[in-house]
Structures are given as C-alpha cells and as structure tokens.
From TrEMBL:
<feature type="domain" description="HD/PDEase">
    <location>
        <begin position="19"/>
        <end position="135"/>
    </location>
</feature>
<dbReference type="InterPro" id="IPR006674">
    <property type="entry name" value="HD_domain"/>
</dbReference>
<protein>
    <submittedName>
        <fullName>Metal dependent phosphohydrolase</fullName>
    </submittedName>
</protein>
<dbReference type="InterPro" id="IPR003607">
    <property type="entry name" value="HD/PDEase_dom"/>
</dbReference>
<keyword id="KW-0378">Hydrolase</keyword>
<dbReference type="Pfam" id="PF01966">
    <property type="entry name" value="HD"/>
</dbReference>
<dbReference type="GO" id="GO:0016787">
    <property type="term" value="F:hydrolase activity"/>
</dbReference>
Amino acid sequence: MNLLEEVKLIVEQKFRTESADHDWYHIERVLKLAEYIQSKEGGDLLVIQLAALLHDISDHKLNGGIKNDCGRVSREMLTRLKADEKLIGQVCEIVDNVSFKGAGVEDVTGSIELDIVRDADRLDAIGAIGIARAFHYGGKHDRSFYEPNLEPTIHANFDAYSSDKSHTLNHFYEKLFLIKDRLRSKTAQEIGSQRHDLMAEFVASFLKEWNVNLK
C-alpha cells in the first residue's frame, strides 16, 4: 500500500461516522474536484491529493472548537507514515489555509496546489450539494431556516465567523455567495459560476415562498 492509499484509508475510516455536512463523501468529492482541476491547471498531483484528503482532518467544527489544527494533525500522520519532509511541509501549508475565515478576511496567497485544493473545497460548499450541506449543518445545530429581522454579518476575523450562530439563510450571504469571486483557478471559476447561479435561484424562490408571494 502506497502513501496515498494509506492516508485515504485512515481518512475514510475517520470520516465514515461524521454527519453529512462534513462526512467521507464530502472529502471524496473534494478529492475528485481537486484531481479534475489539476488535470486542467497543473500542479503536483500527489500534494494536491493528500491535502484534499486531509483538509478537514482536524476542523474546528469537528474537533470541539480547536482552530488551525489541521496542519499539526496532518504532520503527525504523514511523519508516522514516513512521508518525505518536503512533501509534509507542502501539504501542511495547504491544509492550514483552506478554510474560509470570514467575509472580511483575505485568503492567504500561495502555491497553485493551495489554490486548487481551496477551490475544490469551496466548490463543494456551493450549488445543489452546498445548499443541502448548509441546511443539514443548520439543522444539526438547531438553527432556524430564516429570521427576517436578523441581517447578515461581514465577519472581520475567524473568531467572529466561527462563533456566529445565525440562521441558515444568512450563511448564503456571509459565505456561499462570496465564493464565486474568491475562486482562483479558471477551471473552478467556470464550475463555480454555474453553481452560484443555482444557489441564487434557490434563495430567490425560498424568499418568494417564505413571503407567500404568489404573483
């Protein structure tokens, strides 16, 4: 079994028991999206594959609230599996910088591999799957669909963003609708444009039905 196969097995076993918003199928979709983008844009395939598999390995939403922990856990795993030190460093740099940290927080710039994995993760947050994941996560945390008097927030830092407990529809304005313009690769931008339009249509329909606008 090679390094990629070992990491994939470990990650699959860990995420099989997570809920649908951040489960193994999410990881698998991000991996496939990253591989597809790499086939069009280039970049080190193994680095991209490993980072895609490990990008949520210790996400604050899953580990009890510990922030910026994916790099540490990834380094421990890859070191245990005797991966090359340069490879470990490349993967850890990516997984530490994939997460969206708030509308007012600029993304860290880096390698093409970082761009591709971050794009892949964000593509899975939008479109039809993104809508399903958003409402699943909101339901899991007892958040309402929509509160008309509670406006979206432009979060200035990661702490404000990660601690926000607003209704699910605000998540579209606070993150999901912003993703299209933050995608770096041309390939992801093309995919993201279609998924963005689908979400916009959904939210327009949601608000029309919420307000019982039958005209």
